[in-house]
Amino acid sequence: MKVSYQWLSEVVDLNDVSPTQLAQRLTQGGLTVDGVLPRVESVSGVVVGEVVTCTKHPNADRLHVCEVNVGQGELLTIVCGAPNVAAGQRVPTALVGAELPGGKIGKAKLRGVESQGMLCSAKELGLETKLLPKEQTEGLYILPQDAPIGIDVAKLLQLNDTILDIDLTPNRSDCLSIRGLAYEIAALYERKIDFALPARPQLGEASPVQVSIETDRCSRYDAQVLADLSDGPSPLWMQMRLLTMGVRPISAIVDITNYVMLEWGQPLHAFDLDEVHQQHIVVRQARPLETLVTLDGEKRELDPDMIVISDPDRAIGLAGVMGGENTEVTAKTRRVILESAAFDAPSVRRTGQRLGLRSEAQQRFEKGIDVVAIRAALDRATELYADLCGATVLGDAVSTARSPVSVGQEAIHVEFSPERCRQLLGAEINDAVMEQVFTRLGFTTTIEGSSWAVHVPTRRPDITREADLVEEVARLVGYDQIPSTLPTGATTTGTRSLRQKIHHVTRHVLIETGMSEVFTYAFTHPSKLDAMRLPDDSPLRKMIALSMPLSDERTVMRTHLLPSLAQVGAYNLAHGNGGGQIFEIARVYRPRRLPIAEQPQETTMWAGLWFGLRPASLGERARAFDFYDAKGCIEKWLEGFGLLSQAVFTRVRLSYLHPGRSAVVKVGDTVIGHVGQLYPDTATAMEVPAAIYAEFDLDELESLLNLRFHVTSLPRYPASLRDLAVVVRQGVTAAELLQAARDEIADRAHSPELLESIEVFDVYQGKGIPLGHQSLAFSFVYRAADRTLTDEEVTSLEEKVLARWKRDFEASLRA
């Protein structure tokens, strides 16, 4: 935001504060000043001159010889090449020796005629021409006829002003005005501000305009009717103020609204009263298919989420964003309705975003306005219209509110504890200093024992809680005045919770096995579950619908992770990636009942998908991923939690998994997940042929583990490794043999800890194996915590296991 130093100095006494010093103090107080720049480069020796005569140059077609009165008695002869020069004009005149941004002016002969200075254009004075009307940038910069002859142009045009470029944070909407900045500077320097409330016209007559509010997105709407307006350019001083602040001057009627907005922070808008049907203003939501041609000449299609200002027949403005062309103020306008209102900030923001519009008024409505300034700004503008445009006030202002609090609210009350403030800042600041800080800010304080009630004026909407007041104390005392101290209290070493440990181990182990983590949307479409062949009454089909979905493809909360991972896999295959192993740790959302009336069940899962070809490696060709690739990753994961020896894989029938190539995983009696190859129809529909899918419930695992995470010492005694291969019928599963082995060792050895682990490392059918049979090979690891096991002990355990297998499954030791 660009701010005029001269304007600020008229409101706050800054005689002993330079622009650079002010910028430093504002930055220290939390308002970062990005730059301190002169409005123009040095301009001196330029005065107001009147062109008395203007004749053609005798030796040049495009030059004129002018006699100029600069208030020094004698007329100066100046040669000028501007096409718009004419007698009777008052123009900036650079005398001999004058300093301009382009250099120093000296005497010169132009085609034989001596020139005693130069008549200046806006560009030669250093003015920002892009904000000026075209007629003021082509040729000389013509000054008003009442500009005093001989006066210093630098003073007249405020060229010696300094611009502060302030980078405001979004919460400091109060500083989007000279008034707000003045309060801030006064607080920082402990000074008073000269900013009285404007006089309020009291005519005792009813306003000729009627106002109705038909939407709860407008809390207040004030309107004042003005007549007998004489339009034309605004005074030079007002134009210069607007230019300094980066606003284009247009006409007196429009410039006054912009000037008051910059002064008070309250956006205003003027409607041509004669174009408002029935002299009735209606604030409402836009109607379906309604259109409005805005002031920029663009036809806008509106939607019902937008607030519009209308008369009984049509929209005449977009609330807080831009007015309509149908009630635009023109040179013919003699009567206006002046608007000052409070609109819903999010609604104004959405309207601007959807229509691609951005305005100074919109910026202020978005960030929040001061309700006290609504009427004050209206009165200030009314005062300026009367003084500068000769306006007549018709009736008292209309003030219409949706709720009484928006009219009468004067301050908010925030509880404050000085002791808590000292604790937060780590500094011993006494109560008197804190009270003085609030006084400097214009806050009032009611003290009752150790608790204070601080009354914050409505111009500071960013102050809502105690922490905000603590920040104000720190700002005004000075962050550099608060000593650095070490934190008090007991310090503890942070540690992961059980849930965090589970997620960490899961992520670490799966990545270690070669899998890649993905992150997908928690939203999906109900049709995505059709490929899983779920019955119509499946709980997974009960999905939570989104009231405002991101797109037509993501309308519900997901109840299963398979569709999300399959979409990633299909995308990779379609784009030339031959295959991959991916996993995701995410939540699924399953409502307890529909329509939803309570918090749904949110379960954290990890799911994996193995799709396409496994890359070739040393000694192994590229091949399709199979069930055992997935099983190996899962076993490694279980081993990370010390659960591998207790986990059992048994057959399962799920609609979306292959019935002969899938398993449920249990630890004891607890089901923690399942794994299997996708059912062929499911895999085809999801475009991941023959993919393997696994899904595990991490919340269930957490309940199972509870507080089982503990540190154990490294084993002191060596392990004994034995391999056994047996031949059994094809109907016998490895899981059955594993469980039987564990049970036998626990029963016979009276110590299940002797079996450290047991796993399958080979399954074979073919040559050398009887028809209808299979060979299963197991690796046993035995270890005792208190001694080295003897060969006799291990052999005895091995024989017991073989005997159990033979008795229960007719297993025979493979030769």
From TrEMBL:
Cofactor note: Binds 2 magnesium ions per tetramer.
Domain TRNA-binding residues, every copy: 40-154
Gene Ontology annotations for the cellular component aspect, listed alphabetically: phenylalanine-tRNA ligase complex
Pfam families: B3_4, B5, FDX-ACB, tRNA_bind, tRNA_synthFbeta
Domain FDX-ACB: 715-814
Record keywords, A-Z: Aminoacyl-tRNA synthetase, ATP-binding, Cytoplasm, Ligase, Magnesium, Metal-binding, Nucleotide-binding, Protein biosynthesis, RNA-binding, tRNA-binding
Catalytic reaction list: tRNA(Phe) + L-phenylalanine + ATP = L-phenylalanyl-tRNA(Phe) + AMP + diphosphate + H(+)
Residue ranges constituting the B5 domain according to the UniProt record: 409-484
Molecular function terms from GO: ATP binding; catalytic activity, acting on a protein; magnesium ion binding; phenylalanine-tRNA ligase activity; transferase activity; tRNA binding
InterPro entries listed in its UniProt record: aa-tRNA-synth_II/BPL/LPL, B3/B4_tRNA-bd, DNA-bd_dom_put_sf, Fdx_antiC-bd, Fdx_antiC-bd_sf, NA-bd_OB-fold, Phe-tRNA-ligase_IIc_bsu, Phe-tRNA-ligase_IIc_bsu_bact
Stored Gene3D superfamilies: 3.30.56.10, Bira Bifunctional Protein, Domain 2, Ferrodoxin-fold anticodon-binding domain, Nucleic acid-binding proteins, Phenylalanyl-trna Synthetase, Chain B, domain 3
Location(s) in or outside the cell: Cytoplasm
CDD domains: PheRS_beta_core, tRNA_bind_bactPheRS
Binding site for Mg(2+): D462, D468, E471, E472
GO biological process terms on file: phenylalanyl-tRNA aminoacylation
Co-factor(s): Mg(2+)
Enzyme Commission identifier(s): 6.1.1.20
Taxonomy, superkingdom: Bacteria
Quaternary context: Tetramer of two alpha and two beta subunits.
Recorded family membership: Belongs to the phenylalanyl-tRNA synthetase beta subunit family. Type 1 subfamily.
Protein name per its UniProtKB record: Phenylalanine--tRNA ligase beta subunit
Protein's organism: Alicyclobacillus mengziensis
Gene behind this protein: pheT
